[in-house]
Amino acid sequence: MANPLMKSKQGKFPTYQSHLSSLPPSSSSSSSNPDFEYDVFISFRGKDTRKRFTTHLYSSLEGNGISTFMDDEELETGKAISPELLRAIKNSRLFIIVLSENYADSRWCLDELVHIIENLRPKSYIIPIFYDVDPTVVRHQKNSYAIAFSDHEKKYKDQVDKINRWRLALTAVANISGWHLNDQSEVQFIEYIVKEVFRKLGDTSRLLDELDTTIELVNRLKGTYKGFSGAISHEFRLRKSDDHRQHGFRYDVFLSCRGENTRNHFVDNLYHALHRHGIATFRVDETLRMGSEIVPQLLQAIKNSKLSIVILSRNYASSAWCLEELVHILECRKKVGNQVLPIFYGVDPNAVRHQTDSYGEAFAEHEERFNLEKVKKWRDALRKVTNLTSRHLDKRHEVDLIDDIVRTVSRQLRALVGMAYQLNKLNSYLDSDVNDVRIIGLWGVAGIGKTTIMEVNYNMISENFEVCCLLANVKEESLRFGLTALQQQLLRRLPEVPEKISVRDVQHGIGLIRDHFCSKRVLLILDNVDKLDQLEALAGDSSWFGSGSRIIITTRDKNLLASLKGVKMCEIEGLNHGEASELFSFHAFGQNQQLEHYDMLCRHVVEYANGNPLTLKGIGRFLFGKNINEWIYSLNNIKSLRKNQIFNTLRISYDSLDEESKAIFLYISCFLDSKNVDRVSEVLDCCGYPSKIGMESLIDISFITVSNNIVRMHPFAQKMGWKIVHRECTSKPVKCRILWHHRDITEVTSRNSGTESVEAIVLDNPELEGHWNRKAFTSLCNLKLLSIRSNIHLPEGLEYLPQTLRLLKWRRYPLKSLPPDFCPSQLVELKMCHSQIEQLWWEEKLFNDLKCINLSHSRNLTKTPDFTWTPNLEKLILEGCTSLVEVHPSFGTLKRLRILNLKDCISLRSLQCAAMSLESLQICFLSGCSKLEHIDQLVARLVLGSPNILKLSLRNCDLEEGAIPSDIGCCLTSLEVLDIGRNKFSSLPKSIRQLNKLKFLGLAHCNQLKSVPELPSNVEYVEARDCSSLHTFSNPSNVRTSIDFVLSFINCFNLAQNKDCRSTALTWLKAYLGSLMPDNQNQVHFSLYMYMYLSLISLSYIQTCLSQELSQLSGRFDIIVPGTRIPEWFRHQNNMGPSVTIPLPPNRNNRNWIGFAFCVVFIVHQNYSEEESSSIEINCQLYADESRIGNRFGFCISNNTALKSDHLWLRYVSNGSIGKRMLRWNRIGQITASFETESHCLEVKKCGLRAVYKQDMEEKNKRKFQYICSPTEDLGVGFFSNDK
């Protein structure tokens, strides 16, 4: 029989597989191997690798008992291959082809390669080694191979057929997945090859027997399954077990740890667990950690690792090397897309985030040894890494933590396959170093990975923006809730916008978005957009957003993107063959390599999927654990599903789930999508499903993702879930477990046609209205979850609710009581907001599992049940129950109660108990309960009996002088928020200064309050507006606050700190500036962003900072007080308008400049119109020589806040907040501050500006402060900053 290579026509190159598939199938199923004289034959180019790589490889093979043939002589030019060499080729089982740069120069090497392929027998193998040459160079004969063949064609003009055979042989062998040296160690490379040879030469008789039995079946399937061509052979392509060459990664994981803390125990066990699961892991050799600089080898290892595990132990920060590693790890995360998984091992995450305890001690030493910039980078790196999704040892066993880490890493590695190229491509479009506004459209076919790539990118870059918002599945959400709901969701991401903002229509929403976002650096993600009106409503123009903003849109419609002005379109392409093979192997085999003898079948799946990740994952998951016969039958069936490829492969994945995971999938698809992951877990656990295991199964098959603690389902998977539920309800009602569509629910409730299979009913559309009969639930004897938000009427009453209910959520429940026989022993949550309930139940009923009662705004509720029968209650929320008169005294015995909310229960009189033991209480809102009897005794008991309260609101509770216990500072040591506004006391207890964790103090509308004592050192926000009698506030020299400090004294006309309010504001500012002086004895808290602590900087750090350029200071001071004049301290003033300019001296010293101070006199006219938004703003924009400096900053006032006269707004902004924008400080001639407002009722009358220098720091007090929003209700004023 002539060799097929020789018969092929010129110019048509068959693959190696086509050559093998034409070999005759084995005639028997014998498991015995043919007799081979040699285990291995090495083909190589002598002058390239002899005495070097090949010799070392030969020695290693022989040393391990592998019989190897390597010819030691170089043939003379023109001499034919000897019979001995041909015999060695014929009698060798495995061939290692070392393809080097000059391999094609040698006619002998090329003839040898042809003979190897011509004489290849069943159960033989070829392993190509690409030594300092790229596989594509060999495959297509480029570069040095092209030069060699040019010479051959001249020398052998009359032997065209021979040259073609050489080319075919090179192409064929280069198509076999082999080993690529790249830049790794030759010693390690040879070790890998030897291990692979051992594996190939091992006993495979059982697998071969099984394979032989399938040959006849495969040949019969050839005619019906186009994926197969020719008979199947025992030979399949070799796949390298850790083939990262296609992606630029050499390792799966880089382990960063402090060796002396963890290496002998935890890290060793983790390393071996990762290794057992086939995860290639780089672990630092401590001998490399010598000297003061990190070695290039480690830098390269970090860059070449897909994921870094950072094990933050107690002494991690004591190692400068570890900290430098961490900085580089995070840089690679930002630039390359590498993932990072922090592990907190024996250390509190807060200690890492704020560098306290052992971390604080370590940094105190670092500040003495290292320069300012390096230490600041280390601090920033620790802060950033603590904000990433992490794992914490806590009270878990190490074994459980390691199992969790391995599962997480495996899942993330699967998600990263093919991601690097796409992320780099997207980042090139984003170009974050440019300060323009960009709209990028990601488009591609369904299932190609647009949403996945977008989410990974979002997590990588979100920390670089002031406002971040991800609107998932815009297509479906706009259909369900409308575009105005999406606009509201976007607006609520802004701190100055009220939570309950109302958008009248789309045009109104567009105006609000444009007004609120035009000054902010925004990252906005619009996922799965399908219509132009969605884009026009949410991101209609780049001018809506501030400088540096990035808007990313994902869609399947390229034409849609083209219709939007200024969009940069980025196509998301399918995976290449190598990436697709790796992704499929992850899901089909649980590792990134294919099992032996499955290679051809895997190739057909990869070809079928055509680079679509969703298809690869679905088929891989379905085939996982099946034997080779089952694979062949399954693949033949899959062929017929090509018409609806995505949905059918998703259905295959769904069918592979166990029953509990299927139920969890349907629950999430119907009513838990886009919910907080903790809430999803609560509902699933409540319904008796293992939420953690089930969600992990769905993550594994890419049905759901969890990003920023939000569970999101793939749109195609969600649609499939809806179809499954609807099909069950219509065609198989006996098996229907979820009623979700309103038509299906109406059918069941009107005809009483439900079955015991129904577990959940969810009617989530508040616009729907219906009338149900009294027996609507009679046949639903196994119902676990009932959630109704629609307006349902029960004109006949309600006879029955299932006793099996575990979660009952019925908004606007229309009856006065629940059915008398309703006693669900397993009930966990009872939420009936805005209901007509007068009393929950009239008899004593035990609800041992009940954790939450929420009857908010049930205006007819008059009394609560006896809580003795709900011993495990954790949440009692009765806000707005305006008819509630009494709370049963047994509430005081609820030792597990965490939240007590009785806000605005205006008729409540009795909240008494014999003894109060609320040791778990963390949040207590009693604001608006102005009729409570014996309120002073209640507060005293509450303070004594609830030592762990974090937030306490007693606003408008008619508290008189002495009602606040004198020992409040000693008892509530964990208190962070204290809101006691709208009360009648005239002073506060002095012990308040002992509330060492207090962040917010609310005193608004305390009209009789005359003085405020010294406040605790860490108070962050003081709201004292409309305290008309206030005349003494603690001396600023004694109040120590953090770097950001906010004081609101709106309408406090009697405040007399320094005779008038104008000097009050200036006194506070000077005291604040004094906090930056180096003789502070304690740490200072710096904050770059609102709501976030960045780092705790020690005395030595401040000293170093001031001794250098003072250019690293960061912070802001705000105060609003009544006033009509700009203080003279502001040397540059404009008494006639809203802008002011200051010239800068030509020879100024940048080292002494610390920031700018601004002052504005403004008035709010009381003529609000309906067109006015819920708040009005004053914005300040800085200009340097008429060039805009960054984004605006300012404050907003709610429209229900009445300013009775002119007021002063004074703000200081540190140089660190704008330093990056002032790099040419010494070249700037003038600075202009322009104060703007778009409201007709707010007027800026005067303004002042001053550049602040070191000598302006007159007072020297420690400050520790960070701005926060109101914790309980609208403060009337909100400050914001867009500084970066």
The backbone outline, from C-alpha atoms, is globular
Mean pLDDT: 78
Number-wise, the strands total: 48
Query: Rg, please?
Result: 36 Å
Largest beta-sheet characterization: 19 strands, mixed
Distance between the termini: 76 Å
Poorly predicted runs: 1-34, 74-78, 203-247, 1078-1112, 1258-1276, 1279-1284
Q: Strand content of the residues, in percent?
A: 15-25%
What structural category arises from helix and sheet content? alpha/beta
Helical element count? Answer: 40
Task: Indicate the percent of residues in helices.
Answer: 25-40%
Describe this structure in words.
With 1284 residues, the chain is an alpha/beta fold. The strands form nine sheets. It has a 19-stranded mixed β-sheet, sandwiched between helices. The longest helix is centred in the first third of the chain and has 19 residues, at 398-416. The termini are far apart. InterPro entries: Apaf_helical, C-JID, Disease_R_plants, Leu-rich_rpt_3, LRR_dom_sf, NB-ARC, P-loop_NTPase, TIR_dom. This is ADP-ribosyl cyclase/cyclic ADP-ribose hydrolase. Keywords: Hydrolase, Leucine-rich repeat, NAD, Plant defense, Repeat. Residues 1-33 are annotated as: Disordered.
